[in-house]
Amino acid sequence: MRLITVTASVLVLLNLASKTQAQGLIDGFMRGQRKASLALIGSQSTFDTYYVNKTETKNPNLGTVTTQALTLVGTYGLGYDLDLIVAVPYVRTQASAGYSPKQEGFQDASATLRWEAFDYKFGKTKLSWLFAVGYSVPVENYVNDALVAIGRGSRNLDGRTMLHFKARSFFITGQYGYIRNGQVTLDHTVNYYDPSQLNPNSGSVVNVPDVTEIIVRGGIVSKVFNIDVWGQQQTPHNRGTDIGPGVPFPTNAVGFTRVGATAYVRLLKQFGLLAGYSATLDGRNIGKTTQVNGGIVIGHWTANN
Amino acid sequence: MKKYSQLLTISCVLIGLSAAVISCDKSISEPQRVGYTPASIDDKAGTWKTYVLTAPTDVTVATPASVTSAAYLAEVADLKSKSASLTQEQQEAVVYWGTGAVYRWNEIARELAARYNVPPASTADGKYPVPDAANPLADPRFPFANPPYTARAFAYLSVAQYDALVAAWNYKYTFKRSAPSKVDATIRVALPTSALPAYPSEDAVVAAASYTVLKAMFPGEVPYLDAKLAEHRNSRLWAGMNVMSDLNAGGDLGNQVAAKVMARAKTDGMSAANNQALTAGMIADAKARGLSEVWVSQETPARPPMLPNYGAVQNWNFDAATKVKLRPGPPPAIGSPEFTAALDELKTINKGQTREQARIANYWADGAGSYTPPGHWMRTAANAANDAKYSEVRMARTLALVSTALMDAGVCCWDTKSFYYYPRPQQFGMKTSVGLPNFPSYTSGHSTFSAAAAVVLGSIFPDQADDFWAKAQEASDSRVYGLIHYRFDCSAGLACGKNIGAYAVARGKADGSGL
């Protein structure tokens, strides 16, 4: 379950807006001490409509933008209440029309520590309170300010807290996160001097607005399958720019509301398959994407603990 | 269950950490340029050759009151009260404008160019409306400050500043009225003072001339320009640098010069630059000369070419016959071995563009929303002159030489583009990430602009000549790395730009400055 959710956001990288966080959809299920798992997940997200600020736009000189990603996610239980989650995506993105070339490469590697600070059990139900802190950094020096790019190139710090409730096979998790995005250096200088652009002088360094995030996820878990639905809302915390000529894409204020579902089925003791779907309902300076993904999970799968 | 005390401790640490992360500063600090005492005050600049004025005395300025007159003493008293104590905002204005009048107005022009460098969007029926100067803020906004438009705006701005300053220097040394702080040492000055006479004020001259030109070039920005003009004039009072009559005489002089410069602008042929009715003839002529495939807009819907008749606009440093002589020879025939070799080079880059090639392509792209390649070079020129601590008049001379060469380069390049009407590499399958220019390929505008500017700058700053040329070469290469030009577009553009720059250099050598 967690593996699905970890990658669900990695794979929705949008080229007209900033990337979402690899650790953005960490769930509330702990891995368990000295237990490990590895997942390889392929995904494809597409959009032919994007939001300029909040206005839906289509661009005949861009067509449909397709982003495919292959992501490796490893999880390890450092302690019964402490997990380490690492993820590395390889991303390829291209537009169906116009003259933007395909971009591909390793995007941002992330590492997240998740700590179950508090748990309270009564009978078959359990309430836990978790914290997570993650850091992500670009693996490659990819182009970060192009119409079709694999990411925004910032180093990001992600802090979040979760309340996780489970009763028999039903669970619900709510979480709130703050993602601090570092500054990025563009290949070119910025030509605007307007302070509201967030890049006041004529240099190449620009700010990437921070975002906050709320995620609610609920579903059913059992020994052989898990299924859940989730909703995610990301909101820019800092004032940013909107998509426009000459405006560096990393400075855009990005937000979205997305819903999705994920499913996992265990085929063998140490082997399972997963699949997911998500859709963007609303957005700001981002593509209106739909995404499908699927992958294999090797290792100890203990979502139902 | 865990202990509450442990939970509490860790929660506090986390909340503290979060607060630290959220509150820490994300501001971008970059070094600001500040005022200086010029390396030379160029006291003979009143005799330098002007562009539009036949002589500095084409414009007139009233004889100033003597520094012992009651009227002047009243002005000094007023200046003292204005400069005695400044608000934070006033101090910032003094520092900002203290960097240099020409420098700041050029920077303002660059910013306006960037704001207005937006290609009109297509309408629902697939047409592209043309911006209307009489209704500049309607959609699409006027102007579309593309590279030819911007090159011309910079040229008129710099010429007006330069001619106005030469006239101002003439009258400064005619009247020789000292700066107020030299007359009365108790005046508080916030900026370095030189031995330059204060009447008429060079800042007011530049402000008025720049204001008039920019108001004509960017008619939707009048309130913004009004505010800049007022702030610039006031900053001289706040800084204790000029009395009101210095400013008024400067403003009057600047307005007279700008009116003459704008009279030239009205008749230089720009009004016919976007005459789309001419393209059919251009295509027919190019085909008649043997071109097998003509340039076609690759946008959806197809967009009319940018300013197809800009090549007919009047040049600064040579006449129309010379322009025809400067036009590069024909590009290789499509399908010829030369053409195939150039296309193969692009195909190789298309398959495996290196990160450094992408960086160079992006660094020089200067596309929509930027101040364009001419702006890029104006910035380079202004910064070099600022680093060299040039006086206002020498700064203006530098920018006038560079900007007129840039406009000449634009005119020649567009003349060449329309003449040959050569297709872009995208018509043969190339991709590009730097934005696809919507006009014919041969020759490269970046190359022509950059070579012209680099040659002029190399002549003014000989110790940096190699560096400027290396930049021009990189700007030229960037279009090959960006896959929107064949190598021969770029090499022909560089060669042509170099020749164009030489005309501005020759003018500079003969303008009486001895520089």
From TrEMBL, chain A:
Keywords annotated in UniProt: Signal
First and last residue of the signal peptide: 1-22
Name of the protein in its database record: Transporter
Organism from which the protein derives: Spirosoma radiotolerans
TrEMBL record, chain B:
Keywords annotated in UniProt: Signal
Alphabetical list of Pfam families matching this protein: PAP2
Gene Ontology MF annotations: peroxidase activity
CDD domains from the UniProt entry: PAP2_haloperoxidase
Transmembrane annotation, as ranges: none
Gene3D superfamilies per the UniProt record, alphabetical: Vanadium-containing Chloroperoxidase, domain 2 (1.10.606.10)
Domain of life: Bacteria
Signal peptide limits: 1-23
Domain Phosphatidic acid phosphatase type 2/haloperoxidase: 409-497
Entries under PROSITE patterns matching the protein: PROKAR_LIPOPROTEIN
InterPro entries: Br/Cl_peroxidase_C (IPR016119), PAP2/HPO (IPR000326), PAP2/HPO_sf (IPR036938), V-haloperoxidase (IPR052559)
Protein name from the UniProt record: PA-phosphatase
Native source species: Spirosoma radiotolerans
